[in-house]
Structures are given as structure tokens and as C-alpha cells.
Amino acid sequence: MAPQDWMEAEKQGAVSHAFSPYTDNGGTSLAIAGEDFCLVAADTRQSEGYSINSRYAPKAYKFSNGAVLATSGMHADGHTLAKRLEQRLEWYEHNHGKKMSVGAMAQMLSTILYQKRFFPYYTFNILGGLDEHGKGAIYTYDPVGSHEREGWRAAGSGGSLVQPFLDNQIGHKHQQSPQVPITLEKALKVAKDAFSGAAERDIYTGDMAELFIITKDGVHVEQYPLKRD
Amino acid sequence: MSIMQYNGGCLVGMKGKNCVAIASDRRFGVQALGLSTNFQRMFSVSNRLYYGLAGLGTDVQTLSEKFRMSVNMYKLKEERDIAPTTFASLVSSTLYERRFGPYFSEPVIVGLEKDDTPFICATDLIGCINFAKDFVVTGTSSEQLYGMCEALWEPDLEPEDLFETISQAMLNAVDRDALSGWGAVVHVITPTQVITRTLKGRMD
Predict the structure, then answer these.
(1) Interface contact flag, A164 B201, Cβ < 8 Å
(2) Cβ contact (<8 Å) for A165 and B151?
(3) pLDDT at site A100
(4) pLDDT, position A178
(5) From CA B81, how far away is CA B72, in angstroms rounded?
(6) Three-state SS string across A154-210, please?
(7) CB-based contacts of A187, cutoff 8 Å, min separation 6
(8) What is the pLDDT of residue A177?
(9) Does position A2 have pLDDT exceeding 80, yes or no?
(10) Searching chain B, which residue's CA lies closest to the CA of residue A200?
């Protein structure tokens, strides 16, 4: 709009031309903590409105200390956050002579997020790894760093579809199952079924899911194709 | 604050093998304040046709009374019970009549056709019918219900299994929605009978 049109616009009523620094790239992520494993997964579709930007833009990042961060929301902020986290991990290792524990990393992520309290990272994070006792640990965050350790969590555009299913199958809610800890086989089956379900009903979820299996032997990645429609 | 989220509540309908099921929660509230734990949002048209209405409470009640009137008139004139597909069209036209000032309610309809074939459908608030072959969901916890149904439903479930499936879908979905829950009711409709059960769930 040229300057001579601004007067006209004012007469019609205020017109907003604000630039928004945020965008929603969609997608679903989830994590499940087991007795001796941790499963972190996210789909790989990146969208904007009704368009697909990419069918393979991973939003789960592996770190040098064996932790995996699953992000959802804005891809640029998730990617940059992962970059900054890895930088902080490297500094820690050089300064302290050891790799950062998942618990320490979890606390650090919270402070990093809160430092941008007034211009937040538009990401809904789930951090997964093994704690100092070798047990699976996942930490969930809001965009400004409020966090909590949980047994299972789903986030992203399909989060509301997946979360109750995890409550039922991993948490045994509304069931009288014997309270045996969840096995890796069951967790993988539940995660894959969850992604298939989310891909059916959520337009932003699909193409492929990347599942990161964290055990004492390291991090193994599995790719699970999803519907591309 | 969306008008469809003012009172809260949800519904789910599922198809099984020669049977259908419909379930609803029982909460009625005004935004965060819960007021009733036995709000009726499912209604029977006949012993083979049930429907439910989610959304604004006053519209749930007004529409159920309007449908009761319309169906009774139909029965008097036609001297027969209304078929599920016909009732669905009746619901659709009643809602579309108010296209530019709609009722804030989204119905779910389940029943058995004349030849005992299961029938389910849902409409949006202005009457667009979704003829589903598996399940239909509506209400403030519709996303949660979609996730549960998509994962748990499989075709040709027997009445007892359909009951378990629809109940788990409802109970787990409403526990992740602040505006739904406070009890649940399930109707399972077969050619011979209707079994109504009240579910035991979290009352928070």
C-alpha cells in the first residue's frame, strides 16, 4: 500500500499490518519412559497453513549425552533451541570433564526457555533420556520453561488425540491391569498405533514418524512410514 | 470464549456387528463452574434410534423438544416409526433452517435400519451430515475422542466388546478435558434390546 492510500485506509477504519515472528509448523511428538529405556518420537511433516513445506523435516534431536529432545510448534525455534542446547552441552563437557546428566540438562533447558520469557521460543518440548539410575526419564515443558518429570506425554497438533490413548495404554487408566512396568515392545506398538491414529485425523500429522529408542547401549532410531494424505 | 465451549460436554457413537452404541458424559456447567452431574444429552426416538446433542445446553434442550414434536407428528401422519436416515435428514433441515443464526449444538445419531443394518451419523451445527462407517464424535473433547476411537475401534465388534470399547474411549478422553466428564452413560442398541449402563469414572 502506498502512502497516499494510508489516509483512505484510516477513513475506512484501522487496518493492521503487523509482522508476526511466529508460525505454526504443526506435527505431533510423544515420549514414554520405561524401567530401563526411553522412547522419544516425532513425525517428520512440516506444514504451514494448508501447505506442506516438507515431508521429512525431523523435529526430534539427538544430543551428545544420549538425550533426545522432541519439539513441536515452530520448527525454526525448535531447531535453534536444539543448536543452543548442544552448544551448552559441549561447554559443560569441557568445563567439568564429564557429560551432562539428563536431570541437569532438564533443569538447564528450563532456564534457557525462561530467559526468553518476553519473546519465547514457540516450542512445546519433551526431553527424554536415562536418569542416573539407568531408568527412563522424560521431562515436559511449556514454551517458557515450566517443567515436570512424567512417565508419558504427547505434544503438538495431535497431542490431544494421542495423550488419552497413552493414559489408557501406558498409565493403565480405567483398567484393572496388573501394574507391571511397560516393556519396550509394548511402548513401540503403542507409539506406532498412536501416530497412525493421529495421522488419520490430524491434517498436520503424517508422512513419517522417527522413533528414538534410548537404552544403556545408546540411541537407536527407527523410521515408521505414515499416510501421506 | 467460544459459545460451543460455554457449557461443555461430549458424545461418541460407534458401529458394531449388528449393533450400535452411543455414549455421553453428564456434566453441565457455566465455563469453569460445574453445576450438574446428570445433564441429559442423549434422547431416544424409538427403541432402535437414539441421538445425542452436544454444545450449548439451552439449544440441546430446545432441539430435543423440537425433534420430539416433529417425530410425533411424523408418527401420527405416517403411522410408522421414522427411519434413521429420514431422522438424520429431519435433523439436518431443522438445523439448516437457522443457517444465519444457528443452534449451537452438534448432534450424533445412532440406530438400526429396518433390516437391522447399523447406522450412525453426526452433523455440524448447521446440518451438514457426516455418514461415518466407523465412529462419530462431538463436543468439547472431540479431539481426545478422535484419538481414542481411532486407536481402539475395529470393525464388527460384538455388543459386549463394543460397550467396552466405547466406554474406554469416553472415560479416557473426558479425563483430558476440563469441561467434560462428571459421569458417563452408554446405550448399546441391538435388534432385540437396548442396554443402558452408567459408567463409574472420575468425578473431577
Answers:
(1) no
(2) yes
(3) 98
(4) 77
(5) 9
(6) EEECCHHHHHHHHHHHCCCCCCCCCCCCCCHHHHHHHHHHHHHHHHHHCCCCCCEEE
(7) A32, A34, A37, A39, A170
(8) 79
(9) no
(10) B150
pLDDT surpassing 80 at residue A15: no
Both ends of chain B: CA-CA distance in Å?
22
Question: How much is the mean pLDDT over chain A?
Answer: 95
Residue type, A25: N
The secondary structure of B33-58 as a DSSP string is EEEES----EEEEETTEEEEEEE-HH
Task: Say what the pLDDT of residue A214 is.
Answer: 98
Nearest Cα residue in chain A from B172: A164
Length of chain B, in residues: 204
Cβ-count burial A57-92 (b if 16+ within 10 Å, e if not): bbbbbbbebbbbbbbbbbbebbbebbeebbeebeeb
Using a 10 angstrom Cβ sphere, with 0-12 exposed, 13-18 middle and 19 or more buried, the burial of residue B193 is: exposed
Q: Grid coordinates 531447531 are at which residue? A: A79
> What is the greatest pairwise CA distance in chain B?
47
Q: Which of A164, A175, A196 sits opposite B173 (nearest CB)?
A: A164
For residue A178, CA distances in Å to A1, A175, B47, B201 come to 67, 9, 39, 19
With bands split at pLDDT 50, 70 and 90, how would you rate the model's confidence at A85?
A: very high
Please state the rounded mean pLDDT for residues B23-40: 98
Record: contact B147-A158, CB cut-off 8 A: yes
* Per-residue pLDDT tens digits for A189-198: 999 999 999 9
Contact assignment for A174 to B173 by CB distance below 8 Å: no
CB A107 within 8 A of CB A146: no
